[in-house]
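Help wanted!
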Amino acid sequence: MADWDGVHLHVVTGKGGTGKTTVSAALALALAAEGHRVLLLEVEGRQGIAQLFDTSPLPYEERRIAVAPRGGDVYALAVDAEEALLEYLELFYRLGRAGRALKKVGAVDFVTTIAPGLRDVLLTGKAYEAVGRRRAGRLEYDTVVLDAPPTGRITRFLNVNTEMAGLARVGPIRHQADSIMGLLRSPRTAVHFVTLLEEMPTQETLDGVADLTQAGLPVGGVVINMVRPPTLRQTDLQAAAKGRLDRSQVTAGLVAAGLSDEPGLVDGLLAEAAELAERVALERQERRAIAAAGRPTYELPWLTDGIDLGGLYELADTLHRQGAA
Ligand SMILES: Nc1ncnc2c1ncn2[C@@H]1O[C@H](COP(=O)(O)OP(=O)(O)OP(=O)(O)O)[C@@H](O)[C@H]1O
Ligand SMILES: [Mg+2]
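Answered by r_m:
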């Protein structure tokens, strides 16, 4: 049993730069393990997934980008609002070639640019379509992971179809908007937050959790990313915080390690230890604040060599061991 069994759409948000794309990919790998099919979607038009997996930019086509642990496949798609609009025109108006002609004259680009809300309608619509798509009598994907817009925009993004439903009272567009909101508000969706043990991302996470809750959208878990294990023991950290580390012991340690014991070096190490103690104390505070949100929480280590495919598998395995997938 994993924490999110029954969830078909995982939405990953968080403050910019905290690791949304990385965590989305790791989660997709973890969910795909043991023979599942997972689709990883990105909607910010930046080809972050292709960069992460070190492949050429993704065309508007679902491509297999990784094989999961113990067999399973991760597919990826960089959703393009214009292409999604053409799909819609085809679906609702059977425009087909005429739609392509609209694109040629720039009308499609025009429409998605003047109405940024429409862009989000199209992007969430694509996620909805992928979640429900069937092939040979069964769901094409077991789960879909959406590398979503950052915390500041996530509620509006997910709620855009409510606005749409307010505009269209009846008809296919209204029906589509209602269906999308039906999925996004249901327990089949979970919106996860990525954060760091720092004040700003944590505050954004807590605000985001409150916003989503108020909007009736399903909050998932919190992934604390880039966690650095303290390099000192608890007792030494406490001493360092009070400026009471034993100077002679530090000097003796340097000598034992065959290093210079000049006073400048010892002073530098003592200052670093004090800084570390301060950071660890702050991190403890952030951890408490995150725990107060009462959501399942996962911790991913800071990988010192950066993120390559091996690193992604490592993060996926950590998520799996912590019960996220
Ligand atoms: N656990 C980790 N250990 C080490 N580096 C990491 C870790 N997670 C993410 N990174 C690195 O941090 C940077 C930001 O990560 P990522 O691109 O996933 O963030 P993001 O939230 O998607 O950013 P953006 O807001 O720009 O879309 C990248 O260089 C990534 O390789
Ligand atoms: Mg990203």
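OP: Thanks! One thing I noticed: Residues 20-21, 48, 147 surround magnesium ion (ligand 2) (CB under 6 Å).
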